[in-house]
Amino acid sequence: MQSETIHEDIFDRIMGLPGLRILKPWYSKHKEVLLYLFFGGLAVFLNLGLFILFTKRFGWGDLFANVVDWIICVLFQFITNKTWVFAAETDSTKGLIAQLTGFFGGRLLTLLLEELILGIFIVSLHWNRIGVKLAAQIIVIVSNYVISKFFVFKKKN
Length: 157
What we know:
Layout: H1 3-6, H2 10-15, H3 24-57, H4 62-85, H5 93-124, H6 129-152
């Protein structure tokens, strides 16, 4: 068995389906970014959905709701980034803890950035809550990719 087939994940198998095979070379070349955007998109919808749920349904304040949905979304992102996007294996508990700590640390920096954006544009200037939240998420996704790729899940040479 070739090593490539051993490491195939569900997305590789999907790209092997009839009709999608033609895209497989392009997918393989851009897999990391495509999967990051896919899971990032899911995280945005999860984040926005939780934010709306917490603020509209539960009546929580904007900043508190953002922190709670951030914790849930960061756990989701760590699992998907580690497993599929960067395929970052660890050989010890210490390595896993280092990745988790680095991941949460990076995400904490971008949370502070997002909280600043929300505080200024929603709380102080009373701009549209969902529009600001969506714009902040785009900034956060790009920042998180850079942190994850170059600091948390960097490939060892």
